[in-house]
Amino acid sequence: MQFIPVLVLMVLFFVMMFGIGFILNMLMKTTWFPSYLFIVVILPLVVYSLWDRGEVSFLDHLASFRVVDYLTGVAGLAGAVISGLSIQSLRKSGFKMF
Questions:
Q1: Which UniProt keywords apply (predicted)?
Q2: In the chain, is it the N or the C terminus that has fewer CB atoms within a 10 Å radius of its CB?
């Protein structure tokens, strides 16, 4: 495992989920929707789409993920959560988004 590509991938997913979460928070006026969306929809959809149903069982498929995959998922989840925290603090400071 090379460190630089993993770090770039983690930063990319963090920034991407932070941006998407921030925009969704402004438009939908919810605070934690992007975090729930990431956990309930995006992660299971990615795991299911990568699963080769004819070759291995689902538990073997989950066991085949490596540290890089988990680090990327955690970085994306952290971006979604921090977008909710930043919108929450902006709303407490008196800013009104749309």
A1: Membrane, Transmembrane, Transmembrane helix
A2: C
